[in-house]
Design a protein that fits this description.
The complex is a heterodimer of chains A (503) and B (298). Chain A is an alpha/beta fold and 503 residues long. Chain A is built from 18 helices and 17 strands. Chain B has two domains: 2-62; 72-259, MetI-like fold (Orthogonal Bundle), CATH 1.10.3720. Chain B has 15 helices and no strands. The relative contact order of chain B is 0.11. The chains are: A alpha/beta (503), B mainly alpha (298). Chain A: Keywords: Signal.
Chain lengths: 503, 298
Amino acid sequence: MKRARYMGIVLLGLAMLATACGSGSGGTASPSASGGASAPASASGGDGALPEVTLTWYYGVAQVSPDQQLIEDEVNKIIKPKINATVKLKPIDFGSYTTKLNTASAAGEKFDLVWTANWAFNYDENVKKGAFLPLDELIDKYAPETKQAIPQFTWDATKHQGKIYAVPNYQTVISRYGINVIKEYADKYGLDTSKVKRYEDLEPFFEQVKKNEPGIVPFMLVGPLTKFHPFFYGYDDYGVKIGDESYKTNSMEESPEYKQFVELMHRWFEKGYINEDASTVKQIDSSYNGKFAASIEYTMKPGYEAEIKAKNGGRDIVGIPLTDVTTTRTSNIATLTAISRTSKNPERAMMLLELVNTDSKLFNLLSFGLEGKHYDKLNDNTVKTKPNGGYIASNWVFGNVFNGYLIEGQAPDTWEVTKKLNESAVVQPTFGFNFDDTSVKAENANVAAIRAEYEPLLFTGTVDPAEYLPQYLDKLKKAGSEKIQAELQRQLDAWVAEKKKNG
Amino acid sequence: MSETALKRNRFGNAMIHLFFALLSIAIVAPFLLIVSVSLTDEKALVEFGYSFFPSRFSIIAYDFILRTPGALLRAYGNTIFITAAGTVLSLLITSMVAYTISRRDYRLRVPLTVYIFFTMLFSGGLVPFYILMTQYLHLKNSLWAIILPGMLSPFYVLIMKGFMGKIPHELIESAKVDGASEWRIFFRMILPLSTPALATLGLFIAFNYWNEWFNALLFIDSDRLVPLQLLLVRIMNTLDFLRNNSEYIQSLGLDMSQLPNESMRMALVILVAGPMMFIFPFFQKYFVQGMTVGSLKG
């Protein structure tokens, strides 16, 4: 009896202990908070003979490679004679990148080049925090060729209050919205893909699939990727009707097109055309292979059908574009390289960037490794990477991908076609405008939270818009959407005036 | 009358058994799924998705990982070193601090206890911690960056203090009268008397070190120094992260085939978690014994 009671006490104590260590083992060392970042050393702007320097370059990779040191040595062999600098490459896996770089950057750690994007180590946030140096002068002086190779609108996308803070790693910057249909089903039910212009045109096809193919979801949607696409309805990303000279922003949620879209989705959901778990699924991964007939596609870039085929377990797909080729700020800032404010040698860092963006040998070395060891050449410009070669990286974290090799399976003219598409993209009227939410931060956060709650439900048709749409609009208003809209309009007007003044 | 009671009792027992059986299944099932996926041919996974029985059996994932076991073995080595060195050092320092502030005849015991307790409520935060570690202690890329921060936990010190406070002061005094030095008292009397507390805390400290990856994520760049959990977290996190941001990444054309495929990832989970799962039950016996020994004495 006594023993049992004591055991109980000990167990209770242990349980408390366990919860305590689970929650609070973070700050055990109780470090004494001392000193902020030391001031960046004054830039050494000596021309003539360049003194030797070492640059540090942080960038993201899918997985750190065993042969990293080898590549670094080879890179240094190329750049040392040209700019008298060596580089310390610091690849970090994408999953840790944001945490690691945010901490290092906040702690004022010294590094020179740093990869940034709108989806990892957020570019806009870090510009606002002052983590990067403004680059306009450096680019003009040390990277003229890089500047020339990239279209003006891509540069505009990187601007904050008129200043460039990062060099884009130029790649596909277009966005084209459409539907992917598994070819097998399209052929079987005689879907004429050239005739599909709107969602509604797919309805008969979905009906057939639903009726005749048990177990197959006609239209596979995933919550976070299913969006109301303003451009499809003639609006741009800030809700300005394209062609509207007065630049009046519209609340998309209140537009008739929006209502129509969510109603259509709900009707399809009710009929069973859409997968039931649509609002909670994050991505169509391999576990859904062979279980659906159509899905949504965002970037219909040249040759994407071949890429998807591989992911789809070898099923052919047909892409049906629903919109023109356009470009959004998001796709232009998906991969960038910035120079840290703690850099001691920003000039040399920019010279290195120019080299990476112009010297295809250097770029290919960084992206693909060494010929024979890490990849084989199939022809002059196409390579096949060796999966267990010991070095892998993503070419788009380093620089202009159009200077590099193509990967097996890509058509030989992929780069030319992509470049042309990039340049032919419809540049939306408010492109380059960047909403500064400082004055409406709280409202913006509230609205974002409500959006995150309702959008996946409404867009995937999971809930009835007759009931939920008014409720959603009401909540948005209460969260301050009108205040945001007014602030947006004010900033947009100022931006338009500025733009007109500059011609 | 008694028969119905018996029946009710039996029914109750059956319900309890059923409940725990279901609970156990819920715990074991995901693990079995991982085992199954790790043993499935990758192509079959792509075609048919996950299932509890490999649709096409293959040990290629294990074969592949174990053919170049360097990274995994090194990670095991790092983790074992961190855990062993960390636990021993941590126990030593924790018990020394706890003993000092548990001594009734020590004048500064109250302010010192408050000082230690204070750090439980307030900490410097991540960035100052990072600055201290990298710019003052220069511990970047060193295993000490993982061992040091976990070495002295105020919570464990207070627990230890509570335990040691119950050791009669007269014992210490009589040892002193017999001419024992402070060191001798501590190592020959106090530590042996505190074995149950040491065993319990040791278990938790060892767990913390074994599972530690966040400090490693912050401070370790070199691939040679990566501990086991970080190896796993990196692969899993990166994949999750890329998945959650697929909206943005789609246009970049990230070649997902560069990442370890499904069956390989699951095989890695098994290889990382497996050995511990088999070892732990054996050790657990000793720890439970250690705890009960302590309670009987009190």
